[in-house]
Amino acid sequence: MPKQNEYTAEQIQVLEGLEPVRKRPGMYIGSTDSRGLHECLREIVDNSVDESFAGVANTVWVTLGRDGSATVRDNGRGIPVEKHKSGVSALELTMTKLHAGGKFGGGAYKVSGGLHGVGASVVNALSSYFRVVVLRNGKAYYQEYKQGKPLKSVSEASDKQLKEWGITLSGTGTITTFVPDKDIFGDLKFENNKVKNLLRDRAYLVAGLTFHFIDESDGDEASFYFEGGIKSLVAHSNRGKNVLTDVVYLAKSDENISCEVAIQYSDSYTENVKGFVNGIYTTDGGTHVTGFRISLTRAITDYYKKLQNGNGKEEAALTGDDMKEGLTAIVYVKMPSESLQFESQTKAKLNNPEVQGFVATAVKEGLDTYFEEHPGDARKIVEKVMLAARARMAARAAKDAVLRKGALEGATLPGKLADCQSNDPEVSELYIVEGDSAGGSAKQGRDRRHQAILPLGGKILNTERAHLDKIVKFDEIKDLIIALGCGIGDSLNYDKLRYHRVIIMTDADVDGAHIRTLLLTFFYRHMPEIINKGYLYSALPPLYKITIAKEIFYAYSDEELAQILSAHKGEKYSVQRYKGLGEMNPGQLWETTMDPEKRTLKKVVVEDGEAANNMFEMLMGEEVPPRKKYIQTHAHMATLDI
User: Fold this and answer.
1) Which of these, 117, 267, 329, 334, could form a disulfide with 101 (CB 3.0-4.6 Å)?
2) Fold of 230-396
3) Which CATH superfamily is domain 19-224 in?
């Protein structure tokens, strides 16, 4: 036996087959939360999309089963079932071995979203049940698996089995059914909207491909088929906005790479740029998006200078950030799958250096031509960008004025901030508390070593459509910026953030929900990395205090209240409904909402950037009708007892 702390050959482990996937699932699907769960479905869907890229499939069916399963069917060629030189069938090899598939330059696929040949096998490893049915050569073949291991060899399916599975033997194709393993994903379920958004995006990107979706649990059905491609996707993203021009479409291709770009500006303040490669949404962008941004800035700057020629001194030097306000764009690249270089298996970021130059050239040439042929549209775009530049300069001037007064950098911390003793951001917490009364209780009840308290006097400024110059002048937000310590705007430096847990703690009523939404808007629009890094939380205070005999219980929902009362049937009790944090004394506030051993915190995450953008614009923007419609539609979901 090796001694403790020794490192010997005996301690070297070899993980066989798909064991590495189950050991470290996050390495393959990014995470084991809802995002990772839907990544599994995306991997299987993209296998079917690749059949369409190969020109052999035109329809994909996706069904969510009542048992939590997902089934994906296509009318492609069907995975080969013949015996492979490795000794097992090609089907079993594809489903059980990492880096085994037909996307490594063997001629089966020229363009595909798959790269490493691990998609289906990874999903198989993370499923408590996985079945593949292959329709090929006028027959049906199948194999079943548990946690990536075959239950038996590939067999020919009987008519009885096909009937039980609801499968009709017609044509060719592959039908994959899997049940996500609860040991990996817990009780997470597929969400209709996320699945439909995935299929909708794929339908926009792949001409001639139809998707049919059905959820057997609630009967929800949808079909997606678009002939307009990425132009239609941009138009769909900008629905309900005041757009400045029609969608600008650019395209360029050579024997190795093809690039499509669709651009449209609206009068909104937010940006929505998406990059795709072979049908895959690269959530973290990459070289194709970088090339697009570089040339967009150059093309608009060049046209701006042309307009200014002979009109005196240029008004301002435009920056890449000025191009972002109101911009919606899709950058779509297709290239041979064996040439693709991604940052990780989840294909979140494209790394091919040659793509940047190719896209940059395509965008610069295309926009130069478009601006020459559509001078009216070009002027509207330049005016929009100039408006953003003026706002940026005004914000900088206002911020500089504030700085000269010593209010942001180098200033003392706000007087209302009760700071913590620790200087280590990793263990320090900032509670942003609604109301002076609750703030007082929180200051008395906190753990002074690592918990800081910043009370808010009331509702803060709605920052959805406010420029930085106005924001930094608003006292409550200015105090928050100073307390956080990382600056704002072009001086923002997240390395200086003083707390790695920022907790919004508001009352459990409509006003509290509104204040929480205003704070979320501020962080999402002006300090998004605090969210992306996982530093932003929402506290969950109790709704009820229940006194039974001499015991005190706290309930955080109506369901929990009912459970407590049910467990003490026949006993006398009293129930107090908390409508404000200020109703709790310091000890109660600590025990229920601030004690790390007992409290419940909800981490704020952004799973769908486009959906989040649209939600903030709708809830916090100037357009009233969409907000009114949303409130009327979702009023039945409100659970606040006020």
Assistant:
1) 117
2) Ribosomal Protein S5; domain 2 (3.30.230)
3) Histidine kinase-like ATPase, C-terminal domain (3.30.565.10)
Residues facing 132 on adjacent strands: 143, 176
| 117: nearest Cα among 39, 47, 199 | 47
Domain boundaries defined on the chain: 19-224, 230-396, 409-541+602-637
Give the active site residues.
434, 507, 509, 511
Confidence of residue 408 (pLDDT cuts 50, 70, 90): low
Instruction: Give the number of C-alpha atoms closer than 13 A to the C-alpha of residue 605, restricted to the C-beta side.
Output: 10
Q: What is the pLDDT of residues 262-317, one digit of tens each?
A: 999 998 888 889 999 888 888 888 999 999 999 999 999 999 988 887 565 556 67
Return the residue matching tokens 């308290």. 453
Q: Over the range 543-581, which residues count as b (16 or more CB within 10 Å of their CB) and which as e?
A: bbbbebeeeebbbbeeebbeebbeeeeeeeeeeeebbbb
Q: Phi and psi dihedrals of 620, rounded to 5?
A: -115, 0
Q: What percent of the chain is helix, strand and coil (3-state, nearest 5)?
A: 40, 20, 40
What confidence tens digit (pLDDT) does each residue in 319-342 have? Answer: 888 899 899 999 999 888 777 787
Alpha helices (H) along 491-634: 510-526, 528-532, 558-567, 586-589, 609-620, 624-634
- 347 close to 116: Cβ distance less than 8 angstroms: no
d(CA 240, CA 267) in angstroms, rounded, equals 11
Locus of tokens 């007992």 = 598
147 CB neighbour count, 10 Å cutoff: 18
CATH of domain 409-541+602-637: 3.40.50.670
- What average pLDDT does range 536-564 have in this prediction? 91
